[in-house]
Predict the 3D structure of the following.
Amino acid sequence: MNQQDSTTADCQYNYTLAFLVLRFWLATRAILTGVEKFGAFKTKQIALVDPVTGMDDPSGAMVEVKVKFYALANYSGIPASLKPKFANEPLLPHPLMVAFDYMLGPVLLLTGFMLLVGLGTRLSLFAQGLLYVALTVGLILIRQDDGVAWLGIHMALIAFALVLAKYNQFAILKKW
């Protein structure tokens, strides 16, 4: 093996590792964002603990603590704080918003898991890209410019991952 072949092989390994790291990051981002669609908080009362003794306060004082929990019943694709803004946007028909609300979390989870295990990597990256385009349209219409910028960064990462996809060595369906 000559010097040029060795350099080319090293470069390909670096691209493979770069793609793998990017693939795992994008998958993790999609999965956890999808899981968070099922999260909610409930208020729970617990006994006040004396910081010196570590024992419950003898007076029986209670404090309210917010506790996060996950359940199917908590699902909300679109954050509650944004729903009124979307409802008032005439370019976003109500039936379309209802469908998008229902499908957002499951699509994030599906494409995230596909990307994580390498099942149709290109297809899952493309689907995530289309999903982020749809999210971008909504955020532009309700004037959430910070969110649009964040989605732009995600789009750049997805585009870069698609460029590096030819170095995807650890996949179940490499072509897709």
